[in-house]
Amino acid sequence: MNTELLIALGAGVGAPARYLVDQKVKKLHRSLIPIETLGINTVGSFILGLTVHYNHNIGFVIGTGFAGAFTTWSTFAVEAHHLIKRNHRGKAYLYLALTLVLGIGAAAIGNYL
What is the pTM of this model? Predict the structure, then answer.
């Protein structure tokens, strides 16, 4: 199966999964920072770290496809910008720091496993 199709298959599951998780977390919990995006990006970082050394097909479907579509840099950037714009700088810096630390940590743990 060609690489592009494998990636598209994974992305076709990852993007709707991100949307569903985002909506569910927003219904269940309101937070000072966007924990739905923080959680999604942390889990996606773990998944990518876990699959980066798998054979190409699994890596393409789950890593590049699913994790790539599941995670969202653009939403993270917009949310951080909105916090800063609304003068919630402390929350913005906390969100930025948590995203970096948890994302890199999760990717490292996944890669280690």
Answer: 0.92
